[in-house]
Amino acid sequence: MPEPLAAAVFVHGAGAGGWEWTAWARVFAAAGVAVAAPDLRPGPAGLAGTTLADYSAQVSRWLDAVPRPRVLVGASLGGLLAAMNAADADALVLVNPMPPQGLPDAPRRPAVVPWGRCASLAGTRRALPGADDAAALFAFRRWRDESGAVLDQAGAGVALAKPPVPVLVIISEADPDVPPACSQGLATAWNASAWRVPGGHVDPLLGRAAPELAERTLSWLASQETRS
Predict the structure, then answer these.
(1) What angle do CA 91, 82, 55 make, to 5 degrees?
(2) Which residue in 63, 82, 92, 214 has a CA-CA distance of 20 to 30 Å to 163?
(3) How many structural domains are present in the chain?
(4) Which residues of the chain have pLDDT under 50?
């Protein structure tokens, strides 16, 4: 990036919303970066008929709406969607991204995965070992149902070329959903920077260390400006 970062677009994971980037958005906004963290919406055919392409098109529109230089930050499914739109970004930050090669052992999903309807506070607490009780309650109240087709397509994999921009991959050491070895392998294949951090799949966004990790990421982005 030849100029200081102007904007950041945050892409949430499956069953979540832009709310899961609240801590990061505050840190980036305080640094003078324009922030966009919208919710992914069902496609024209409704949630059961929503596809990965529907979501990717939304991310593309979000990017078009913010100035450059811009970073695309995605977590889990959002990480894959970010990678699918890398050509329109100036840097990528991928947090425990669903790998482009897919997850061969992922189960087939129903047309609508009832994560919102079937959420429990206890289950949310287990999924966020690095978060406090307030953050767990905040997340529990906001989980939503998800498109099974999107998850099946992501699990099957997407053919992607190495991004033409700087890439940072953040890898949770205790991630039960995306094996850390997959994220490390992706970072190696793409010659990306890679950070190993404590916690589970969503802890980098909602855990106690999220603001500090966002600050560290801003420093990494600033270092890319000086290398351009």
Answers:
(1) 150
(2) 214
(3) 1
(4) 226, 228
**Does residue 1 form part of some domain?**
no
* Residue 112 CB neighbour total at 10 angstroms: 19
Is 137:165 a contact under the CB 8 Å cutoff? no
Q: Which of 63, 85, 46, 60 is nearest to 7 (CA)?
A: 63
The enclosing domain of 200 has a CATH number of 3.40.50.1820
Q: Return d(Cα 139, Cα 37) in angstroms, integer.
A: 16
Q: Cα–Cα distance between 169 and 164 in angstroms, integer?
A: 15
Q: Which structural domain, as residue segments, surrounds residue 68?
A: 7-227
Q: How far apart are CA 15 and CA 77, in angstroms?
A: 9
End-to-end CA distance of the chain: 5
* 37 occurs within a structural domain: yes
Write down the pLDDT at residue 125.
86
